[in-house]
Amino acid sequence: MLKTALTAIFVFGLLVFIHELGHFSVAKMVGIKVHEFAIGMGPRLLRYKRGETDYSIRILPIGGYVKMEGEDEVSNDSRSFSKKTVGERIAVIFAGPFMNFILSILLFAIIFYNVMGTPTTRIQQVMENSPAAMAGIHENDKILSVNNVAIRDWDHLVEEINISQGETLEVELMRGNEKIQKMVKPEADESTDRFMIGIVPVTEKSVTLALRGSYEQTKMIFTEMLAFFGRLFRRQATSAEVVGPVGIISLVGQASRDGFYNVLYLAALISINLGIINLLPIPALDGSRILFLIFELFRGKPVDPDKEAFVHMVGLALLMLLMIIITYKDILTFFSS
Fold first, then answer.
1. pTM to 2 decimals?
2. One GO biological process from the UniProt record (predicted)?
3. From CA 249, how far away is CA 266, in angstroms rounded?
4. Structural domain boundaries of the chain?
5. Is the pLDDT confidence value at 276 over 70?
C-alpha cells in the first residue's frame, strides 16, 4: 500500500510539475511577474523564495498552479499577464499541455531505448511458411520500399502492409550490396485483425530511433484518445471506460508491481490524457482560457474579467462535481472487485 501511495505521488507530482513548468517557463520568457510556483494544493509543506517568486510544495498531492500577476484580477503592472499580447498569453497557457506531450515522448523514449529497443526495417527472422518465406525474403534483408513507397521505419512498414488488405505487394529489398524486388501477398492475422507477411525486425538501441519511435507512439495514442473523447461526447463510450483519481491510483499500484518501466508507460499515457483534457474548451481548463483569448483577438478587446472569472468558477464547480461522481464510481468498483 505504501509503495502504491509513493508511486502515485511520484506520477502525479511529475505530471503536475512538468505541466506547471510549461506555464512558468514561458511566463518568465515573455516577462510576466510570477508570484508563486506551487505543486499540490492546500496548506504549504515547504516554501522557498527566490527573487520575486515563491516555490512551494503543498500538502495535497493533486494539482498545482502558477500564480501570475494580473491573470485573474485587474492589474496595471506593466509585467502583468493581462498587459501581454494575445499571442504571448496563448503561448503561456498552451505551454502546460504541450509540456505534457513532450514528457510522454521522453518517457516512451526511455522505455524504447532501455527495454524494447527500436524495431528497424532490417529483418531478424522470417517465419516458417509465411508469405515472406514463400516470396524468398531472407534474414538480414533490409526493406527499402513497398509498392514504390519509400519506407521510413518499422511502423510505416506495418502500416503499408496493413492497408494492402491482402493485395500482392511489390517489396524492394537491400540484400548485401544488391537491390532486389519480391512479390509478397500478405495474410490476415485473425488474432490482431491486421495483415502480416511474417517477419521479425532487428531492434537497435539508438537515441535517435528511440525518440522517433516514441514520437510515433505518442501520436498514435493521442489520435486514439481523441477518438475516445469523440465517442464519449457522442455517448458511444461507457462510464466503465472513465476513471478518476482512485481508479488511476489503482492502475499505478498495478503498474508498480509489474516494474518501473510499466510505471513510466502508464505515466506517459496519463500525461497525454492530461494534455488533451486541458486543451478541451471546458471552463476552468486551459482550453477554455485559450478560447477566450481567441475571442478577444477577433473582438479587438478582452472579455470582462469578472464575467470570465465567473464562467471559470462555474466550470470549476461542475468539474469538481464530476470528479466526485467519478471517484464514487471508482470506490464502488474498487471494493466490488
1. 0.72
2. proteolysis
3. 11
4. 2-116+210-336, 119-204
5. yes
